[in-house]
Automatic annotation (TrEMBL):
It comes from the Bacteria. This is Antitoxin. InterPro entries: Antitoxin_Phd/YefM, YefM-like_sf. Antitoxin component of a type II toxin-antitoxin (TA) system. Belongs to the phD/YefM antitoxin family.
């Protein structure tokens, strides 16, 4: 595990946080003495892509739904 002095950690905080979020934990030291360990939060930063998979359906004609009504609205001929 990488150990970084506090001055360097302040200078490169954004880069270090990105690395920690990807699972690269590190230790911040003050005067060569380890002070804190920085790691990613387990389960908190997971991607949410597909979190509703299998929970609903999309109709086959989704792209054509209400096409006539929408065309009438654009043409200014809605009832």
């Amino acid at each position: 595990m990488k150990t970084i002095n506090i001055h360097e950690a302040k200078t490169h905080l954004s880069k270090l946080v990105e690395a920690a979020a990807k699972g690269e934990a590190f230790v911040i030291a003050k005067s060569g003495r380890p002070m804190v360990k920085v790691t990613m939060l387990e389960g908190q930063l997971q991607k949410r892509l597909g979190f509703l998979a299998g929970k609903g359906t999309v109709p086959v004609d989704f792209d054509e739904m209400s096409a006539d009504e929408i065309a009438q609205m654009f043409a200014g001929t809605e009832a």
